[in-house]
Amino acid sequence: MLSRLPPKRRLVVQGSLSRQPVAQIIRDALLAEFEKNGHLLNSSNKDIAITGEITTFWFDMQIGFATVEFMGTVGVNLKVVNSKTNEVLLTQPYQGYYNEKSMGGYVGTWERVMNMALERMVNQVSADPKFIKALQTI
């Protein structure tokens, strides 16, 4: 589970106001990726604990002469711990960034940008050989 996370914030996701805090959105995205990759997520088997801290959840835009650039960043520090021995197997930062330029902002632009940044961060976690090795240690 992710811990030490920032306070609840409301976020628009897929066109509707989400009551989920940012931490829950990131946690759900990571859990979905773990399940997709065949990692057993069982609360009764607590061999490994994954904790984390959100370091960045940021959206910005720069207005140019003829375009608007939208930029999103999602970053976390994850820690993989052997629950039986409390040995820290991995501490690693991960960050996803996405930007796009367009002639203007359209409905849903910032949601799309933040979702892509989140997806890139999650992909970075799941493709990290050190993270995979830490999960396979036990």
Based on secondary structure, the structural category is alpha+beta
Query: So what's the oligomer here?
Result: single chain
Strand order of the largest sheet: 3-4-5
Count of separate DSSP helical elements: 3
Global mean pLDDT: 81
How many DSSP-defined strands?
5
Principal-axis shape equals: elongated
Instruction: Tell me what portion of residues adopts beta-strand conformation.
Output: 35-45%
Give me the strand/helix succession: EEHEEEHH
Helix content: 25-40%
Largest sheet: 3 strands, antiparallel
Low-confidence stretches: 1-17
Cα distance spanning the termini: 17 Å
Describe this structure in words.
By secondary structure, this protein is of the alpha+beta class. The protein contains three helices and five strands. It has helices at residues 22-36, 109-127, 129-136; strands at residues 11-13, 16-18, 48-63, 68-82, 88-102. A three-stranded antiparallel sheet has the order 3-4-5. A two-stranded antiparallel sheet has the order 1-2. Mean pLDDT is 81; it is low at 1-17.
